[in-house]
Amino acid sequence: MPDALRTHLATQLEATVARRSHDEILYSVPPAARGIQPDRLPEGYLLWQILEHMRICQADCFRFCTDSDYTVPMWPDDYWPDAVAPPSDDAWNHSLNAFQQDLRLIKELVNDAPVDSAGEIPHAAAVREQEGDTSYHGLTYADEIVAIADHNAYHLGQFGMVRRLLGVWPPVPTEPPAWAA
Fold it and tell me: Using CA atoms, how far apart are residues 129 and 84, in angstroms rounded to an integer?
């Protein structure tokens, strides 16, 4: 794959040109704000729901790229958390850490020389055939990586907006979590 495409895909995953970094947006959310619905916003705009949805979708797209035995989860049930608030601080931290770890793995995939990011994912056509017209997955690695970047950017914008409406923006400086290092 040309280096220019790798660079472009990696830049899209960071996407800090038009917005703040995902580290800053997700960083230092007070526990009391994680499951609060701002006034006049519909369900699905709680910080926990957005974070978990991003984590689940990003992991799903990565699995689609790398797992030849991939099966399609059920929409929308398998893509959103059941709870509106994290059950514990550990659950919140696990979600943040998993999101960051999966993002690192995706970046490694982008930079993996043997992987042709412009090329077709070997099992993509078979999965799409099983999904029929409801498919949201692309055929190439680049399709999926761009979808991850686009989806993350969309929901990070929501996350930042909700933080502002809840009065927990900008992040209060504290010790950065391990995933922000």
Answer: 34
User: Measuring CA to CA, which residue among 99, 82, 6 is closest to residue 44?
Assistant: 82
Tens digit of pLDDT for each residue in 68-102?
999 989 989 999 999 999 999 999 999 999 999 99
Given a contact cutoff of 8 angstroms between Cβ atoms, the answer to whether 149 and 70 are in contact is no
Nearest partner of 30 among 180, 179, 166, judged by Cα: 166
pTM for the model stands at: 0.90
Q: Three-class SS of residue 125?
A: helix
| Token code pair at residue 68 | 């030849």
Nearest CA to 98 out of 162, 34, 153, 52 is that of 52
Query: What is the distance between the alpha carbons of residues 92 and 89, in angstroms, rounded to a whole number?
Result: 5
Compute the distance between CA of residue 14 and CA of residue 7 in angstroms, rounded to an integer: 11
Is residue 120 classed as helix, strand or coil in its secondary structure? strand
Q: What does the block give as tokens for 116?
A: 């042709």
